[in-house]
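[SOLVED] Need 3D model of a two-part complex

Original post:
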Amino acid sequence: MLINANKMLIIAIFAFVITFILTYTLTKFLISYLKKINRIVKDYHKPGEVKVPMPGGPALVIPIIIVEIMVYIFTQDIRILSLIFTIMIVFIIGIIDDLYILSGILKPTLLILGGLPIIILKTYNPYLTFPLFGTVRLTIIYPILILIAITITSNTINSIDVLNGAVSGFLIIATVPIMFALILKADYIAITFTLPLLASLLAFYKYHRYPSRIFPGDSGSLSIGAIYGALTILGSVEVVGVIALLPAILNSFLFLTSVKRLVEHREIKARPTILLEDYRIAASKDISAPITLIRLILADGPLSESEIVKEIFKLAIFTAILASITAYITWGL
Amino acid sequence: MTYRLLPLMGILLVAWLLIFLGSFIIFKIVAPIPEFLPGYFGVLITAIIKVIISTLLVICWILIMVWLRDLYVRKKFLKKS
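Solution:
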């Protein structure tokens, strides 16, 4: 189905606005509902017994699914269909993880399923585009990379969901260079199906930022990670996506190379950070504690929770600039 | 800009540059290497060599990142203790 530029712009605005309103409303509702059914968890970085509703994932993800279905009806672009199935699969895994806590090995194994819709519907382009030296064909290995990519982006995004507003704010920043790359590529349908993620994150951030009134839970963080990974594949902007995600990838890399095994973070005995009496957070001096991005940020001294999140955002902005430079060299010159 | 972030930004910058360098070597130098020998075994041996070189490059990337991590940890944590 061919759609002219004006209609596409209207669909894009519609996708953004509707998702924003839906997430904003649903998050507000979910906060009171989760409190009512006593699905609340302790916020360890706050004085006193501060309890926060969790999981906020449904409020973050369901509006995206609804709007993506609408965008698919208008555009008939099959890439959106594979995106919807990917979101659904990872969201179900996330909900199961929120309710029963999956092991450190089972979770990434199940997340492999998230990449299957993209492979089955053949909505990928097995050509990776690099700046300066152009395109490379990866016909055989690319489908395997898709399965790995969805698992990595979900888990990587999930791994930075440790402080108020960190994961939602980080992903808002990381989505900007993806949008920029898609604009340079003039892939307006991909821009349209990327906007619901950005809109949902912006609406959710209002409640997730410090001091959090809701936590996304694994259903939220795994799903938005998978959506991000799927969008970079479906929009063929994988390299830009990887670079924008570098602080989170570095966090996972630091954790895995120090722990040396796939493990659920709740199973780790020695914590990478410690909470001080004044509720600032300090890096642990325990040599057996895992190395994480936050521990390295705190190496120069303790910071408050909101200050650490700001530092993470600065790193995210830095890599978003690097990713945008990459996009410009690749498609803008 | 907070001074504490500069070394971390340095690590991220190196990671960014290494992605391009590694990809360039793998896709533009290693991948186009022609078959050493004619026939099926020639194709097989060349493919195995290409995979080995590419794997070694990925290992190099990981080792450089681990070295940078250790350098940072030694400088920041061990100096203080």
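Edit: Residues 106 and 262 of chain A are 10 Å apart (CA to CA).
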